[in-house]
């Protein structure tokens, strides 16, 4: 059964601009979540391309990252009307696919993601404006115990702050972060599988390690706006028209994994900073 997601209300749009994030309940149906999980589990190309990202404690999270949405189930989700229309409504412009990634925290060993802003390093890619956002879709249920996404509510209004390396990740300036932790409310984005959180590129976010017996997989797609076409050629694409597909395409394509021709990013190809995620 195809999932029907209601258009955003004025109240939801206002909340996103006020808080810097918005949770969308039941973005994917139970059937669609099951298809994504099935595709991931049999996707040898995706798994073999995963980077092991270490946090400051040496714990590891597997991260697979690709620039262009294919004709697999991940591409159908990233190009679906329910997702693209939502991002365009929140960012008030035509959007294009900047990149997608699968963040997989294994039980008991999955690492943390340091506190950071995505625009803290996308700025270095030649994007003049922070008019960008990410959507994190819970493939597994997300809880405090398994390292759910955390955000600092309203922190996007500060603008970009300085970032530096922490372990193998890029983190926000520690002194500034200490002030931010006192100033802003910390929100744990606990969600059932299929729900999603959309967050602004300047929203401070991070997550803790997975200390539970459950996996915590998240499918993240990042969108840039047409008017923010990067002025610097780098490891993510410039403006590339996005071909939307009907929401029904997700179920129609089924548990189709990525093609062998899909290109995944290597850490060595990231020429602006160490890759970070949620």
Keywords summarizing the entry:
278 residues; single chain; 25% strand; seven-stranded antiparallel beta sheet; Jelly Rolls; four-stranded antiparallel beta sheet; alpha+beta
What does this structure look like?
- One of its GO terms (molecular function) is iron ion binding.
- Pfam families: PhyH.
- Keywords: Dioxygenase, Oxidoreductase.
- It comes from Veronia nyctiphanis.
- This is Phytanoyl-CoA dioxygenase family protein.
- This protein is of the alpha+beta class and 278 residues long.
- The two termini are 29 Å apart.
- The longest helix has 13 residues.
- 23% of the residues lie in helices and 25% in strands.
- The protein has a seven-stranded antiparallel beta sheet. A four-stranded antiparallel beta sheet has the order 5-12-7-10, with helices on one face. Strands 8-9 form a two-stranded antiparallel ribbon.
- The model has no long low-confidence stretch (mean pLDDT 93).
- The chain contains eight helices and 13 strands.
- It has one domain: Sandwich (Jelly Rolls).
Q: Can you give me a brief rundown of this structure?
A:
Pfam families: PhyH (PF05721). The protein is an alpha+beta fold.
* Major sheet details: 7 strands, antiparallel
| Bulk shape | globular
Low-confidence stretches: none
Task: Name the helix and strand elements from N-terminus to C-terminus, one letter apiece.
Answer: HEHHEEHHEEHEEEEHEEEEH
Identify the strand order in the major beta sheet: 1-11-6-13-4-3-2
CATH level-two architecture: Sandwich
Domain count: the total is 1
Number of strands: 13
Give the count of helical stretches: 8
């Amino acid at each position: 059964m195809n999932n029907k997601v209601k258009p955003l209300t004025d109240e939801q749009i206002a909340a996103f601009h006020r808080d810097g994030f918005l949770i969308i309940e039941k973005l994917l149906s139970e059937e669609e979540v099951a298809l994504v999980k099935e595709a991931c589990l049999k996707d040898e190309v995706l798994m073999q391309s995963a980077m092991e990202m270490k946090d400051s404690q040496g714990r590891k999270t597997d991260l697979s990252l690709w620039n262009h949405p294919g004709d697999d189930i991940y591409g159908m989700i990233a190009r679906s009307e329910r997702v693209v229309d939502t991002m365009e409504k929140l960012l008030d412009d035509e959007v294009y696919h900047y990149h997608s990634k699968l963040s997989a925290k294994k039980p008991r060993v999955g690492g943390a993601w340091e506190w950071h802003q995505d625009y803290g390093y996308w700025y270095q890619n030649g994007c003049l404006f922070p008019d960008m956002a990410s959507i994190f879709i819970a493939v597994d249920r997300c809880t405090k115990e398994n390292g759910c996404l955390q955000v600092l509510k309203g922190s996007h209004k500060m603008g970009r702050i300085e970032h530096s390396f922490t372990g193998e990740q890029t983190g926000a300036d520690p002194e500034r972060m200490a002030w931010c932790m006192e100033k802003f409310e910390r929100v744990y984005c606990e969600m059932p599988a299929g729900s999603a959180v959309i967050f602004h590129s300047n929203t401070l976010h991070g997550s803790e390690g997975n200390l539970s017996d459950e996996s915590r997989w998240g499918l993240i797609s990042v969108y840039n706006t047409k008017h923010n076409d990067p002025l610097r050629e780098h490891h993510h694409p410039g403006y590339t028209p996005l071909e939307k597909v009907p929401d029904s395409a997700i179920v129609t394509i089924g548990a189709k994994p990525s093609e062998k021709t899909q290109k995944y990013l290597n850490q060595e190809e990231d020429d602006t900073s160490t890759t970070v995620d949620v």
